[in-house]
């Protein structure tokens, strides 16, 4: 029987959206179809600027009286402030719960343990997010095998799920991060910031870069945004890397270079192509 593990995720924070217009508001701001997000359901989405460039890639989690957005802690305050500017007359409040709610990942079970005051939502695979006050999260995780945060990110990399950080926000449109391939972009919904550009790229097929997975040979992990080279020429930018055996990474790469081994700028690491669980347009 596979062990059930919990992974504390201190690098993640939570935004809370309350009010009768919470889902309608988020539906109008994010790329995904979130109008009917149910309690306990999770959905990946992107928040873009007017140029269609991704500013954040949160997991949205439906609740009974609110919607939660899980995203890197370093982005939480800026994203909350940015979204508040769009509230206008909508009946929704946006709050940064970084100091009151913690996040853990649960792996290896279809039944997610939940303590009073916590919320759980399943993700693709045998993973789930557990969100709540630190004491409630700790109580739910009691007795489970402890895992580290790096292992959680390695699982997300193998699933082909991107993350945007301070170093990379505004660098890519959703299709470059394969968000259209993992259900995080709806091309049937109405307007949201950057929608015209995202839709144009989709309908005209003008996506010249896509995200790919790599296994890393060499010591240390590159930082988000680091350049990756093919025969000395920059062809890719790193999205996220995580330790493991071997370490792995996701990178946005020019279509012509898909399937080729890459190197970092100093030649200290080699990036060997690895498969994703979904087909990538333009790949061999």
CATH H-level name of the largest domain... which superfamily? Probable tRNA modification gtpase trme, domain 1
Percent range of helical residues: 10-25%
Order of helices and strands: EEHEEEEEHEEEEHEHHEEEEEE
**Share in β-strands:** 25-35%
CATH topology of the largest domain: Gyrase A, domain 2
The 3D shape can be described as globular
Strand pairing plus helix content: what structural class? Answer: alpha+beta
Brief descriptors of the model:
alpha+beta, Gyrase A, domain 2, Elongation Factor Tu (Ef-tu), domain 3, 2 domains, six-stranded antiparallel barrel, five-stranded mixed sheet, 5 helices, 18 strands, globular
Task: Describe how the helices and strands are arranged.
Blueprint: E1 5-8, E2 12-18, H1 22-29, E3 42-44, E4 47-48, E5 54-56, E6 59-62, E7 66-72, H2 73-84, E8 93-96, E9 102-107, E10 119-123, E11 127-132, H3 134-141, E12 145-147, H4 149-159, H5 195-204, E13 209-217, E14 227-230, E15 233-242, E16 248-254, E17 262-264, E18 270-274
């Amino acid at each position: 029987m596979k062990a059930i593990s919990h992974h504390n995720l201190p690098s993640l924070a939570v935004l809370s959206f309350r009010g009768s217009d919470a889902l309608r508001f988020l539906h109008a701001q994010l790329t995904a179809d979130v109008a009917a997000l149910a309690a306990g359901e999770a959905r990946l989405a992107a928040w873009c600027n007017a140029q269609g460039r991704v500013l954040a890639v949160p997991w949205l989690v439906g609740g009974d009286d609110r919607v939660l957005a899980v995203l890197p802690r370093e982005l939480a305050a800026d994203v909350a402030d940015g979204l508040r500017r769009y509230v206008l007359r909508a009946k929704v409040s946006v709050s940064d719960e970084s100091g009151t709610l913690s996040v853990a990942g649960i792996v290896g079970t279809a039944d997610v343990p939940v303590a009073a005051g916590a919320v759980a939502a399943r993700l693709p695979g045998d993973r789930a997010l557990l969100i709540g006050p630190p004491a409630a999260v700790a109580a739910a995780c009691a007795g489970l095998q402890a895992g580290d945060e790096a292992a959680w990110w390695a699982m997300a990399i193998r699933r082909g799920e991107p993350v945007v950080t301070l170093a990379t926000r505004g660098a890519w449109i959703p299709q470059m991060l394969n968000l259209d391939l993992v259900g995080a972009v709806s091309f049937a919904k109405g307007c949201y910031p950057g929608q015209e550009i995202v839709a144009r790229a989709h309908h005209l097929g003008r996506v010249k870069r896509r995200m790919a997975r790599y296994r890393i040979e060499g010591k240390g992990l590159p930082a988000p945004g680091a350049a990756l080279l093919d025969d000395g020429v920059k062809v890719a930018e790193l999205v996220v890397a995580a330790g493991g055996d071997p370490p792995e990474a996701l990178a946005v790469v020019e279509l012509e270079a898909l399937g080729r081994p890459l190197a970092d700028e100093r030649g200290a690491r080699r990036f060997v192509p690895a498969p994703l669980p979904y087909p990538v347009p333009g790949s061999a």
